[in-house]
Batch of 2 targets.
Target 1
Amino acid sequence: MLRFIKVLGYSLAPDYREGDFVLIAKIPFLLNRLKRGDTVVFSHPVYGTMIKRVESSGAKKGEIFVVGTHQDSVDSRQFGAIHTTDLIGKVIWHIRQPGKAH
Amino acid sequence: MIHRFIQALDDKFGFEQASAHCDIPCGIYDPITAQIAAVTVVRMMDLIADLESKGAHDVSYHNTMSRYIAVKEEHAEKAKAEIRIIWGDFIKAQHIEKHPNVHEVTHKIMMLGSKARQTVDREAAVQFVEAINEFAEIFWSAKGMATKRVKSPYNPPLELVYPVV
């Protein structure tokens, strides 16, 4: 239900940086109410486990459009919407590295 | 403070990592470069055999032979390297689950590629091409694409696996 995940890469910079941790929850109540701006961790068949921001959900039932905040981010703009069944969890706590305020 | 505590937990237990990809991690992967390199190896072996059959062992012969051998070496190594990249960077757990023979095929390619460098064993080089074809079939299947086998439109006319696009 709850687990810690370590962030790699910079596509969610400057908010999320490599080495940050997130606590994610896989609770249907939360996952069914995702809204724009939420951060989610999901499994992608090619890219593996990813963390991205929700751009929109519900355009087609069971699908979510996710994006990074960095211009070079690899996200739904390349690989399309993700399925809600691939969600690993929603970020409920972001633990930033000290000394890297933004 | 909290970060340091969680970092200590991570050091001990090793949390899963989620990638916020920002580089270009995938996008362009294609085993065709390895397939072409492997066919080149067979072609060099044919040219080597042809040159040898002409009998002359003068300076020109040695020059040409050295060049054929150098290209054979280079392309065998290139094919191996390209396959290692796809295997190491693209292939993920779910692909392995679906194609459990991918490691065996990759290892076979490495062994046959080395043999192609060490010898002028044409049969082994043709097997090298075929092993890479097998890998290409796994790769395209992992990408959800069908494949077809077509004879290469150049010498030697060996069958190559192409995606049906």
Target 2
Amino acid sequence: MKLIWLIAAMVGLSGLAAYAAPSPWEQPAASLADQVAAILGPGQAHLTIQNLSSISTDEIPAIRRLLTQDLKAHGVAMAGAESANTVRVTLSESVRERLWVAEIGEGNQTQVAIVDLGPIQPQQAPTVSGLTLSSRQILVARDPLLAVLEIPNGLVALEPEQVVLYAHTAEGWQEQKHLSIEQRRQLARDPRGALLGYGDGLSFDAWLPGVHCTGSFTFVPSPIGSNFDCRESDDPWAVTQPPLHLTESSGGATEMNVTVTPIRAFYNASRSYFTGVLAPNNGPDLPPFYSAALIPRVAGSAALLVGGIDGKVQLVENGALKPVAGTRDWGSDFAVLQSSCGAGTQVIASSSGEAASDSLRAFELPALEAVPASVPLTMDGTVTALWTTPDGKSVLAVVRNAANQYEVDRVTVLCN
Amino acid sequence: MRWTVLRYFAISCLAAALAFSAAARTRPHYGGTLHVEIAGDPWQTPDGLARRLILDGLTAFNANGEVSPALAVEWQSEDNDHRWQFRLRSGVHFHDGSPLTSTAVVMSLNLACTPNCPWATVHAVGSSVVFTSDSPLPNLPALLAGDEFLIALTRTPDGQTPANPIGTGPFQFAAFSNGVLTLTANDNCWQDRPFLDEVTISASRPIRDQWLDLSVGRADVVEVPPQELRQAQQQRLTVVVSPPVELLALQVSDSGALANPVLRAAIAQAVDRSALFNVIFQKQGEITASLLPQSLTGYSFLFPTDRDVNKANELRGGLTPPPLTFAAGGDGTMQLATQRIALNLHEAGFSVQVVNARNAPSTDLALRKLSVEGADPPDALAILLRSAGENAPVAGLNSTALYRAEHDFLDLKTLVPLLDLPRAYAIGGRVRDLTLRADGTPDLAGASLEGAQ
């Protein structure tokens, strides 16, 4: 008796599930059947279906069943190939959307009915195992974003002609204030900029080619720019973002609370790279480079990772410049974050391929070789800048997407 | 299926290129001179390579084929698309330093627009340009993105007509000698400076000479006609291939000997697309009988492509029109295709005389390549119809209405679609980040050279 009840309950549940999740093809099938019946009127017709779309062939019987039912409801019964009336349905699609087309033949006359099914839903990326990079979009802007800085309850975004302050509200990130940069020079096609926040969380520096700005905020309760000043300047830019929480290289997560002064570098505005001259410069001569990041090494020390304009990645450690192997797939942007996964420190590097969309991948540097620590994470477009957040636990990626909008994505490492 | 093969080939070419350049890549380098060779004229309309480098439009197609702001930052229509106002981008200057003004834009558009202008009037209102028309212009933003309406300076500040083209684009005219056009980077370009310092375009170069120059490093970007794609693959060239962006079509006059639409329908039935595809275009592109490709609409298969000589004879019904003139123009492949179609028509009882296009501006038949631009099917259809000589508003249509619009136009039998063809270019090893625009032409402003300093 219990078994009967159990079977009955399962049947009931499955029926409920079927009711709760209608087939996605019900509506288009009904709509096409309406149009076909309006042309044919009650009678008989021979139905054929061809599939030129990405719909799985496994789904064709269900679609046929739906069409047959809907046509029958309109008085159009299915007949064999000898029927004078034919309904040839083609499941088709363009690059953007699906459409179902019916060619209705009555003798020598053929009429056409078309149903638009709307945009094709992109395929979900398969889940992967291992240390995983996770990306979450936090902001989209129409104007180019050269750099982004996270501040308490807010975000500072550097654009070519202004700094925009965003506040984090219940509705998401809201623009609070626009601080105009009057000294704008003509930018390069690949414009860059930099932002540096200070430990007080109340002030920042911004650099654009030939321009240096300083600003500060008050919180009422959102960040509002209270002071902002720009001047023409060729002073060096900050290329690393403090604070850096140095940890033991053994993998322990002990924070050593070492204050690291940001490294500054002179910028070649006409060629969009750093000249290789640092300030202060008390290490070896560096080649011109695009990116640099401080990375914790043994015994609480830090080394400078430099991505040269020739594509070579080198490490400045103990006063010497050492080549880093395993970086052939790296693009020109990287940033360092600290997590509770793996060795505790990962370099997040952009990809070097010519694909339409860049990807980010986590690497670890146990010695002088970059070891992949995650599978690549495909971004929505071209990665134009990568910055470590002030807490050092995530990376903000600026991505120019296919619609030429600029997204800010927070990238973090997830342990498995 | 055939397009799948082409895509596979394109992907294979790119994969080979990537494998070849496995070294670490960096941000693009600034500097250097890129050498381009083409078979045609860099200043020809449409699709002249230099035009897009020197000039900008009020709007432009982005990489996805969507209409996006260019010299105009925003636009709005009123009065059911009879009046359009485009607000100009501020701070833009022509290459000679003179500011882009609404008056300069209006002068340029008036000069560019032929008697078959889509609008009735265009005038300057403050920093805006206003178009008016007796009939609605739903596709105007897309039409203004085309090659036809790029903005050039028509009068210098001292009232002279510029000796050389002056625009607002990423490159500016520097010199033209011995068939080589030299363009230099526009440091003050509103789109920001291009990576390259200089581009040279060698005009009227035969394809074989282009490929030879590519192989010895004298050229960085050369053309690959669709029928040569297989050959390029065999020679292991790095090739970038566009989706189908050109429609090869037979233009049929609706006056004179072919004023009778039944005769035009007979001609449409007589053409053998398979022979063109298999033999002359070496199985590249797609056979089509529709104006827009299947990838854009999804309903192209509704237009039958098969040849039916019996039907053609039946339609002709014993009528024997006077000998038809058929203009043979373009390159050798286009002339071969012309000869082939003339043979098809002979087989269907037509008498055809192939004449040189240069000597016969008006003929009964002509083979044409029409651009298929933009990702929005109504806009793409409007642009294509305009290039075929029709100003037809096409907007806000669902697939059914779009199919009807296309069907009704093709029913006139004044244009017989034959093949959808891609555009392709072979690139040298030092070229980086070369992409193709929505019209299939190379976007040289975004390209850079490996090792440039």
